[in-house]
Amino acid sequence: MRAFFALLLIIFSPILSAQVSATLDRYSLTASDTLNLTLEAADQIQQRPDLSPLRKDFRILGSQRVVVSSHSSATRDVSTRWHLQLRPLNTGTLTIPPLRLGNSLSEPLDVTVTGAVQSRPQADDLFMDSLISQDRVYSHAQLIYTARLFQRTPPAESLEFLPPSMPGALVVRLTDPRTFNTERGGETWYIREQTFALFPSETGLHTLLGAEIRSAGPAFSSPLPERFEIEVLPPAHQNTRGYWLPAEQVSLDENWDTASSLQPGESFVREITLTARGLPADALPSLFTQRHDDYFAQKEDVSLTETQTPQGLVSTRTERIRIEPLGPGALKLPAIDLSWWNTRHDQADTTTLPAREVNIEEPAPVIAATPAASPDIIDTQGFDFWPWLSLCLGVAFLGSSAGWLHSMRQLRQERNRHNEHNQLEAQRRAQKLLLSHQRAERNTFQALAIACQQNDGETARSRLIEWGQNFWPEQNIDSLEGLCEAAHSQTIDFLILDLEQHLHSSPFEWQGDLLLEAVEKLRLKRFRNAEQQLSDGSGPLSLAS
């Protein structure tokens, strides 16, 4: 029985061990030609195949590893391919021996080599063995690719890697090339290494073409670039603000430099910083909402920075916002919630900046003038003697005349004070109405600016009419034609015509930067006219300036 099992093992051992397929691009060649050998195993194998048996009859010119993924409705199959470029060292019938890839061996192959072998100097052995962080990545998420060249002798300092490529992917260099050595198979190898980050945007199965090598050194034989099959997944979800933020880590911080209580008319600055690991800076969304009824907010500065690290790209977006309260009382700044997709744990996550509250004190009360008291009435008494009576009558006449003149003067003063009070009340009402119009104009302009910055033509059209109604309240504006009549600007006319044409033909191609710039010029012109009125003392401010 033992002999029977031994016989079966001898018969089927080649079949059991031949789990690695080996194919050649040709089976007959001359000694000056090259031969391409392909090894394939039905698994994802990181180890490099043992190529030492080939060195007896062949010179290894280059090698590359390719990971191939295939998907069905229920399964995902992965295989590893090694492409080897060989040049024969001898002639005749040469045998490619079984090669070990992982725990399996390939089948032997025979190839016929004719002609004369030219003597060539023995070149240094070198090969590429690069790494990728994963073979499945979300759209616009980060993929780390590390190019590695193994060489028996120290590489030249001029050796550099050309960036890898992938359809629709942004490529960023993370590190400079570095050289170090390691022990591999009992031998010392020198490794030249550089790391890149790729941010693919097109979903589907794509090929990542690895880095090519460029060197100014003499007689350098560059190995073939590696290929990796990468599956780019669509966004996992879409938040309410319409952006997709796949990152390894996200944090929100703020610089709060104001007191807990402010006087009326004072403003303060709030600085918010968004930090994301694994995203480029231009992918970070806007943080602060400018439209609010209790305050006017204006972005003073937005700065974007990127830091390259071996672990990936770290980006920051810092917004500096000046906030001006519009009334007394408790001013509440709402919390900022940022939804993002955690690529480390493959789940949705939220980062929150807590709400803030500032107290705006009441303005000092105005002390009204107290009316003057009426003079006492002088009582007269009659006398028995006519001279004294005449004297008293004369004094009474003079007193009554003086009292009448004093009363007329007090009445005139009271009337003037009443008129001044009415004028002040009218100015207060006008100022309050002006402040209300200015607040509405600021809010509608901010909404228009956001629509223009997002190139949202349909929203920009509605917000433009709302802004015009508040910018020219004395005119009845209910359409873009009415806004053009109020603006008296050929630039505004042309840009509105361009907006309407895009809305009818190609709404997603409209760019709102020129329209926003033209509206800002109108507002700047009004502000300058208002400052001129204040400096000249020509009259109160108005929206029609």
Can you walk me through this structure?
With 545 residues, the protein is an alpha+beta fold. The protein has 3 domains: 21-115 and 123-233, no CATH class; 246-360, Sandwich (Immunoglobulin-like); 431-533, no CATH class. It contains 6 helices and 30 strands. The strands form 8 sheets. Strands 1, 3, 4, 5, 12, 18 and 20 form a 7-stranded mixed sheet that branches. Strands 10, 11, 13, 15, 16 and 17 form a 6-stranded antiparallel sheet that branches. The protein has a 4-stranded antiparallel sheet with strand order 22-24-26-25, with helices on one face. A hairpin with a 4-residue loop joins β28 and β29. The longest helix has 68 residues, at 386-453. The model is unreliable at 4-18, 120-124 and 372-380 (pLDDT under 50). Pfam families: BatD (PF13584), DUF7939 (PF25607).
In short:
The chain is an alpha+beta fold and 545 residues long. The protein has helices spanning 2-17, 386-453, 457-471, 480-487, 490-505, 513-536, and strands at 20-24, 28-30, 35-41, 58-71, 76-88, 92-96, 100-101, 104-105, 109-114, 126-128, 131-132, 136-138, 143-151, 160-161, 169-173, 178-184, 187-200, 204-209, 213-214, 227-233, 246-247, 249-256, 261-262, 268-277, 295-309, 312-325, 329-333, 336-342, 347-353, 356-360. The strands form eight sheets. Strands 1, 3, 4, 5, 12, 18 and 20 form a seven-stranded mixed sheet that branches.
